Amino acid sequence: GPQLGFASESFIDELAYAAGADAVAFRLAHLQDPRAIAAIRACADRFGWQPRIAGSLRVADPVVAGRGFAYAQRGQTIVALAVEVEVNRATGRIRPRRWTVAHDCGLVINPQGLRLCIEGNIAQGSSRALWEEVTFDPAMVTSLDWIGYPILDLIDAPDAIDIVLLDRPDLPPSGAGESAIRPVAAAIGNAIFDATGIRLRRVPFTPERIKQA
Fold this sequence. Notes:
Elements: H1 2-18, H2 23-29, H3 34-47, E1 63-74, E2 77-88, E3 94-104, H4 111-130, E4 160-165, H5 184-196, H6 207-212
Parallel strand pairs: 3-4
Antiparallel strand pairs: 1-2, 2-3
């Protein structure tokens, strides 16, 4: 799921850029599912998304900001994400500062539990997108501890995760355990492109890879 979401939603963002279109408007123009359209619009509205072509506000500052969007479906659950990231050109460190999540999993039974689950999805998805990578040599796995296999640190945690729950009492609950993880890496990657003009096609987005790119 996360791998497919990263590939497809990164490519959709590239298509929007090639067409000279805003990333949200481009997605809406090619979707017919009313639930998907509603989720994307709800996310964009809550985030305060202003239409423009990705990368059109790039600056040469040492620390730059960008925004990214991504959408995914897992079973009958629909998720749309928008994120604002900070890119430190000197250190290569990426920090997602602010997330907005629109989440439609049918009937919502426990809103607070669902919100906590979504927050966990964003945290774990960010950890996988930015840091987590198994390394190995011809004989064995070499990432044997938390130094060799780092995870998201508190200093990388976002300032805010704003969640919009789209309750559908007419539909059965379709689950939220891992749905919001799927588009996280793509949203971050799209935001990095918006900030820097660099399109990364391999995760995790480690400081070394950012500086090299």
